[in-house]
Amino acid sequence: MSQASTQANGGAITARLSVMMFLQFFAWGSWYVSMGTFLAANAQLKDASAWAYSLVPIAAIISPFFLGIVADRFFATERVLGALHILGGVFMLAVPSMATQDPTMFLTLVGLHALCYVPTLGLTNSLAFRNVTDQEKQFPLIRVWGTIGWIVANLVVSSALHADHSATQFTVAGIAAIVLGLYSLTLPHTPPPAAGQKVSARDIMGLDSLALMKQPSFAVFMISSFLICIPLAAYYQLANRYVEAVGFANPTSWMSIGQGSEIFFMLVMPFFFMRLGVKKMLLVGMLAWVVRYGLFSGAWGDKVQWMVIAGVFLHGICYDFFFVTGQIYVDKKAPDMIRSQAQGFLVLVTQGLGMFIGAQTMGQIEKAYTNGDAIQWQGLWLIPCIAAGVISVLFFLLFREDRDAVEAARDSNALDGTLEQVPAR
Fold it and tell me: Residue 375: beta bridge partners?
């Protein structure tokens, strides 16, 4: 095959993966940000916020086992994606009929959708990584279309449909999920890397990916990722309501500014990778959370809107520099045969355990800072600000970037019992 043909084929695959990412995050962005505003506007559901925002984390706790067994061993990734998105879309389409009638059924249906959706976060990353040749350069350019999808979803729900307070947002999400499910079946064939291998108890428990924790740098990264996701939960759970509280109409549309900045920083990530390295990229992302919550807290007294928008804008650095960098870091640390499992482990630790504890914690903090129907926003935002600051300092002191270990893990093609411990430098 000529070089021109190879480049054309690579461009076509990149385009197909970009569409996948667009639909993946359109389906999520249609409801996840605006759900808090919807719950607050409905008397029967206004006290359900903490549990509603715990559903995705609960699904993330379960999903790594699904990733490790099904996607790594039995079925092609694109087929698993198709089945999960179609089923999840059906559950989401049933939500509007139950939204204001039965809170328990509402939570159940959203939870079932989350159980279908969350495994696909790791699966789309895994499929993309396995079909590109240069993760650092190509993956950010593919992943940026997920951010565009989230922005478009926010604008459709908030500005076009004015559905911030309406169950229509769940209908949009259900339709998008089914479309993505059908599209997934057309993606590049990505067979399971460990097909035909015997399934053991260690596979079911995900112990191969857990063995990566023997590497000191990987352990520090995972523990820091878990801890930082506790204060992060405040953003997804409360920021949309806060934007509305300081005087912005169509708050979900304003929240999309954060995803707009995500696009910019996603595009310049290859430049920063070469000059900063993993540790500094991760640290900058964590410190951006500190600044964001500080801006939110300081803005409340006089309802200074530019400070709120600046805090929302920082989401690009917060997400890209920490989460996308983390996904690439994990992909390089994990041997080929457990990459899907390792990505699932990252989802478990961050969007599972971390976000679940964060959602429940922020629910209690919200109650503590609520007087009647009024929330004392200034004090509330100081809590995640201080927490993120402490975690950032600990990460800076303890994480040591082991470039040799990253390359060694990337080139490894076999697991003999447990992974070898690679000392940090």
Answer: 370
Residues in the chain: 425
Residue 408 pLDDT: 38
Closest to 362 measured CA to CA, from 347, 374, 372, 377: 377
What is the spatial distance between Cα 54 and Cα 75, in angstroms, rounded to a whole number?
Answer: 29
The whole-angstrom separation of Cα 149 and Cα 22 is: 4
How far apart are the two ends of the chain, measured CA to CA in Å? 42
- The amino acid at residue 88 is G
Residue 67 has what pLDDT? 61
**Residue 334 vs residues 146, 200, 292, 391: alpha-carbon distances, Å:** 24, 19, 32, 25
SS3 61: helix
Could you tell me which residues come within 8 angstroms of residue 146 by beta carbon, excluding any fewer than 6 positions away? 21, 22, 24, 25
* Under 8 Å between Cβ of 422 and 215: yes
* pLDDT surpasses 50 at 410: no
Mean pLDDT for 207-235 is 89
Distances from the Cα of 312 to the Cαs of 76, 117, 177, 306, 381, in angstroms? 38, 25, 26, 10, 13
What is the spatial distance between Cα 350 and Cα 45, in angstroms, rounded to a whole number?
Answer: 26
**Confidence (pTM):** 0.75
